[in-house]
Design goal:
Elements: E1 22-24, E2 30-32, H1 45-55, E3 74-75, H2 77-84, E4 87-89, E5 96-98, H3 102-108, E6 115-116, E7 127-128, H4 130-139, H5 141-173, H6 178-190, H7 194-201, H8 219-226, H9 229-237, H10 253-260, H11 263-271, H12 287-293, H13 297-305, H14 318-328
Antiparallel strand pairs: 1-2, 1-3, 4-5, 6-7
Helix pairs in contact: 5-7, 6-8, 7-9, 8-9, 8-10, 9-11, 10-11, 10-12, 12-13, 12-14
């Protein structure tokens, strides 16, 4: 970001000096048009503007003059050249350099952080600045081997994902008994195989609320018990009922997740419509009782903050209720 850039060289969206490609509307207002590079590439201001407009089913408009913007804008080369001559401040040494020289300056800045080789765990002891790391990476045998391993790992990962998709589509389309399909869906849920789970859940004849034959546990209950948050989210989106218990005891998914202390899973279930005070058929115990019995103080605090009631007049849950009051220091009524 330039130090006090002039108004005519600032983006109409973020009000900062654009870096890289610059587009302009029909009236000359400039907008950032190059995604931010880094560990995670972020969309540019122009992409964000069009995405927000598409969400509202409307045309993207310039924030300054409100004129509609076509699908392809005009690149403003004059603004790009002028912005390169603006002065910016190095984040390390705080010296002022032009935006055109800033990337090279920060890479070789002596005040910058010391970086280690990507193969440091393999035994490479090199330490240096960012500019030197690229040169070292091209000559270090361990770094070259590390990069080759990472490429092989990514290729195997993509192949495994493609195989999971094919397996899920086959299981969803193959002729199987309903019990077999339910058991396969349950296995995908407890092993957090989200790819297979999504492929099977998309098929209408796959019952996401069907329980497996062995103990009557539903896929949602199995995923909640194992703390597989992504699998729980996929099942809820596919129509799984968050407040339906399973098995002879009628244990609901929220009860199982709270008993095991899976915080993120509990939050996803609550966001999906799970009843926080739902009771288990076996002893009328609530998820708060389950967390108390397991000694999970953080989970008790979370459930109480979300509106769980610590009062229970049922005989089966009276002992857990008393422990609730003792752990949370709440007055009994």
């Amino acid at each position: 970001m330039a130090v006090n850039p002039p108004a005519h060289l600032t983006c109409a969206v973020c009000l900062e000096a654009p870096v890289g490609r610059v587009e302009q509307c029909a009236r000359g207002h400039i907008i950032c048009a190059q995604p931010t590079e880094g560990p995670q590439t972020e969309p540019c201001c122009l992409d964000k503007l069009r995405k927000d407009a598409a969400a509202l089913s409307g045309a993207a408009r310039c924030p300054m003059c409100r004129i509609s913007m076509p699908s392809e804008l005009t690149r403003c080369l004059v603004a790009e050249q002028a912005i390169k001559l603006l002065f910016s401040r190095c984040i390390y040494c705080k010296s002022d350099v032009t935006l055109d020289e800033l990337p090279n300056h920060e890479e070789s800045c002596l005040c910058g952080p010391d970086l280690r080789c990507v193969a440091a765990e393999a035994g490479c002891a090199w330490v240096g600045k960012l500019a030197g790391s690229r040169v070292h990476k091209s000559h270090c045998a361990l770094a070259i081997q590390h990069e080759a391993w990472m490429l092989k790992f990514e290729a195997e990962k993509e192949a495994r994902i493609a195989g999971d998709v094919a397996m899920g589509e086959y299981l969803a389309s193959a002729w199987l008994w309903n019990t077999q399909r339910s058991n396969l869906l349950y296995l995908a849920a407890i092993h957090n195989n989200v790819v297979v789970l999504e492929a099977m859940a998309k098929v209408s004849r796959v019952g996401v609320n069907d329980s497996r034959v062995k103990d009557g546990e539903t896929p949602l209950c199995g995923a909640a018990r194992c703390g597989n948050t992504e699998a729980v989210r996929v099942l809820l989106q596919a129509g799984a009922l968050p407040s339906v218990g399973s098995g002879p005891s009628g244990t609901p998914p929220l009860y199982l997740a709270a008993e095991e202390g899976h915080r993120e899973t509990v939050l996803v279930l609550l966001a999906g419509g799970a009843n926080i005070n739902i009771r288990r058929k076996l002893d009328d115990a609530t998820p708060l009782h389950a967390a108390c019995r397991a000694g999970r103080f953080d989970m008790c605090d979370l459930l109480c903050r979300k509106g769980a009631s610590p009062i229970s007049g049922e005989t089966g849950a009276a002992r857990a209720s008393r422990r609730c009051f003792w752990m949370l220091s709440l007055p009994m009524e």
